[in-house]
Amino acid sequence: MNWNMILYTVLNTAFVLLFAPLLVSLIKKVKAMCQGRRGTPLLQTYFQLFKLFKKEIIYSDNSSFIMRISPYLNIAFLLVASIFIPIVFIPAQESGFGNIILFLYLMVCARFFMALSGLDAGSTFGGMGSSREMTIASIIEPTTLMACAAIAFILKTTNIPEMFGTVLDGSILQYPTLFLVPSSLFIILIVETARVPVDNPETHLELTMVHEAMILEQSGPKLALMELSYGIKQLILMALLINILFPWGMATDATAAGILISIASFIVKALILAVVMGVFESFFAKIRFFRLPDFFMIAFFLSFATIVFELLS
Amino acid sequence: MIDTIIFNDIIHGLFVLILGTAALIITQRSLTSLFNIYAAQSLILAVMAIVLFIEYGTLNLLFIAILTLAVKTIFIPLFLHKVLKRISVKRDLQFMFLSPASSILISAILIFVVYLFFTNIAGDLFADRLILLVGVIGIALALMGMMVIFSRKRVITKTVGYLTMENGVLLFSLFMAEMPFIIEILIVLDLLMIIVLSAVLAFGIDSGMEEFHKKLNRLGIWIED
Questions:
Q1: Which helix (H) or strand (E) holds A97?
Q2: What is the phi/psi pair of residue A171, to 5°?
Q3: How far apart are alpha carbons A63 and A40 in whole angstroms?
Q4: Fewest 10 Å CB contacts: which of A240, A267, B122, B157?
Q5: In terms of CA atoms, which chain A residue is nearest residue B118?
Q6: How close, in Å, is residue A154 to chain B by CA atoms?
């Protein structure tokens, strides 16, 4: 562990923590504007987190220690995963760091503890949410694995920073098969962040909710941690998509100017992607639960086709 | 002539789009968007023919592009939309034998099997990797069209499946061999005939195949069972 790595870890984590809530409220704002409403201010998610951190925590009598530790575990797993996705600059290679398979397992661990905490309080809604989440997960995980396998196969590495570096060095035109990957990554992004064709992030009141049902029993600072980790998950998946497809502007070494440029360019790209996601969500109605596999299968098919394409070219 | 790398990139990109449209044709339920996707797929083929024309300068390819553009992206979808206005169905919700998810899975397997076949059995035929890719995608597209034909219940969706198959064959022929232009025209004429016949004959085009057989039975045209 050298100073470069420590600087990278601190900067990247700080950026993710600070920037994630903004994207959550931006997507809400875009959706509101699509519906002809004015929407909440852009800083609303920050206010909300701030408010929640000051409130007291109330647990259900039936809940166990799982309920108490899962918000910490959840955010810890996601923060470690966020270090794997370079945003501020691409650090020099360290062994065991940035492996895409480990990254996926970290995300799955976070999901597992979230589902457990949904079950823990013993409320009907939480249990339903967890059961649905696991059903969806069992279908989307193979798709996610296939998409990551496709990226790793094209770029000939399983190391995420190295992938970004490879795409950054050559143009995307050197890897024409990479054009197929973003569409499956986008579908995965929609599913993992519980957005409209799959789940509705707006409401606690629908019987069809998935993500919101699991965190229904959390309160106060614990709820704030859960919401923050949702924002982080969304940001790192967006960063994965952005840095594979549009890596331009990323710095490869830790100079002040380079870091500023890569942060600024990432913010611009992320804001554009957030607007796209908001508009995409406004165009769709929620898909019936049992028809969801059709939606995922398109992503699976595209990732599989990517691998065959790469075999052929 | 275009730069070889850029040419390869463009062709690859177009192939990606064709596969995407094929996946959508397999899963899409709304008939209107089904026709639009078919039109888009044909448009991509036309663009591909134009790119090939710019690269190789064969006049045939330009004619094929114009023909595809006129007939398959404009005329046939328009005609199908017109038929759709007459009949009562707007969606094809019925799938036989396969659900959309499993047909997508099967088509992924199909692509892989065709790839294995081409590399192992007919590998020596393809000196150029691009031609190999074309062969795999073209044949896979035709097979996927076939799958649409047997997994959908409505006659009008089956027609789209048939059209997709023909697109696969066209894709194959664009790269594979110099096909005489007159044969291309004949194929397109056949397509038109099939569209018109399936619309006119199948006054029950809005019904399933089984009901259609019953109607023909009543007319005494359909003899067996």
A1: none
A2: -85, 165
A3: 34
A4: B122
A5: A312
A6: 14
CB within 8 Å of B85: residues ≥ 6 apart: none
DSSP output for B20-74: HHHHHHHH--BHHHHHHHHHHHHHHHHHHHHHHHHHH--HHHHHHHHHIIIIIII
Mutate to test the interface with A, among B4, B21, B104 (most CBs of A within 10 A): B104
Identity of the residue numbered A133:
E
Distances (CA, A) of A99 to A80, A102, B74: 12, 5, 49
Per-residue pLDDT reduced to its tens digit, B100-130: 788 888 888 888 888 888 888 776 666 677 7
For B182, counting Cβ atoms within 10 Å of its Cβ (0-12 exposed, 13-18 middle, 19+ buried), the class is exposed
Q: By residue range, what is the domain housing residue A36? A: 3-312
Separation in Å, CA of B144 to nearest CA in chain A:
13
Within 8 A by CB and 6+ apart from A201, the residues are: A193, A194, A195, A211, A212
| B-chain residue closest to A312, CA distance | B133
In A42-99, which residue ranges form alpha helices assigned H by DSSP?
44-54, 65-83
Q: What is the pTM of this model?
A: 0.83
Residue B28's nearest CA partner among A302, A295, A136 is A295
Q: How many CB atoms lie within 10 A of CB B107?
A: 25
Per the CB < 8 Å rule, is A304 touching B108? yes
CA-wise closest residue to B96 among B153, B135, B39, B175: B153
Q: Report the alpha-carbon angle A57-A59-A62, nearest 5.
A: 175
Residue whose pair of structure tokens reads 């614990």 in the numeric block: A222
ipTM reported for the complex, 2 dp: 0.73
Q: How many CB atoms lie within 10 A of CB B3?
A: 8
Domain count, chain A: 1
- The Cα–Cα gap between A85 and A232 comes to 11
Of residues A311, A296, A306, A302, the one with CA closest to residue A135: A296
Per residue in A42-88, pLDDT tens? 999 999 999 999 999 988 888 889 999 999 999 999 999 999 998 88
DSSP-derived 3-state class of residue A95: coil
Q: Quote the strand ranges of chain B, DSSP E.
A: none
Integer Cα distance of A178 and B156 in angstroms: 35
Residue of B183, B191, B219 whose CA lies nearest to B204: B219
Residues 6+ apart with CB under 8 A from B129: A312, A313
Are the C-beta atoms of A176 and A124 separated by less than 8 Å? Answer: no
Query: What is the pLDDT, as a whole number, of residue A69?
Result: 92
Encode A273-298: b = buried (16+ Cβ within 10 Å), e = exposed: bbeebbebbeeeeeeeeeebbbbbbb
Q: Which residues from B are below 8 Å from A305, CB to CB?
A: 16, 19, 108, 111
Can you tell me whether residue A250 is helix, strand or coil? coil
For B22-33, b where at least 16 C-beta lie within 10 A, e where not — what string?
bbbbbbbbebee
SS3 of residue A99 by DSSP: strand
